[in-house]
Amino acid sequence: MTDSKAGAQPPSPLIEFKNVSVVRDGRTLLDAVSLTIPEGEHIAILGPNGAGKSSLIRTITREYYPSCRGPDVTFRFRGRDRWDAFDLRSHLGVVSGDLQQTFTRGISGREVVLSGFFSSVGLFLSHEVTPAMEQKTDEILEFLEIAHLADRPMTELSSGEGRRLLIGRALVHDPGTLVLDEPTNSLDLHALHTFRKTLRKIARSGTGIILVTHSLPDIIPEISRVILMRDGAVRMDGKKAEVLTDGAVGELFRVPVRVREEDGYYYATGY
User: Fold this and answer.
1) N or C: which end of the chain has fewer CB within 10 A?
2) Backbone angles phi and psi of 233, in degrees to 5
3) Model pTM?
4) Is 3 inside any structural domain?
5) Where are the alpha helices (DSSP H) in 61-175?
6) Please, how many CA atoms are within 13 Å of residue 149, restricted to the half-sphere of its CB?
């Protein structure tokens, strides 16, 4: 019997960049970045402030474009050189600090999640909310354990609570990968603990995680690959235990450090 899968082409990577540079206003934000990210992989992009991490995410979401094209430059999303916003939303859910600032208004938690169906900030009269959307929103609120926030306005919520609602908003289209840009900024210890639990639950559910951070403890145990960035370039890319070493982390942040692992989390001390 012939195996129907024999000779089948492997799936295209979610992200495939080769020699991608981004220059804006005379500044090089990304410098010949080469990077391949398969769908469903859990990775962390680690680097100091100004390393180019957020610029990389903006390039993935087509807010930024490569400064030059040519045979030596690859800029693909799921095997395609062109992609639209709808296709992006179906595969990538993005949560950023800028997005949270945009939602600092009297919108209920439920409305925040529902607005993900329309890529809007809140709901408008022109939006037709279907029973299926309502059901999906209920499922997400329960899954993220934030149903108690459904009727509360964003202006009355903590940073951590608001961030979890925005994660819910990003999940309405069941994206294969969730992108989080510096997600623990301004979170206290309790909020950080809750956020980690939420992120681990999402990772274990099968959704890929791309975590952008400057803090080692943000990297949950489920993340197996770490990319180090500095000055707009990828400095190192590999398995977490091989990348998060005293020498590599110390060179990345230009400080002497001692890196230790505890219960699957990594911490840097001595600086």
Assistant:
1) N
2) -130, 155
3) 0.90
4) no
5) 85-91, 97-102, 109-114, 131-143, 159-170
6) 29
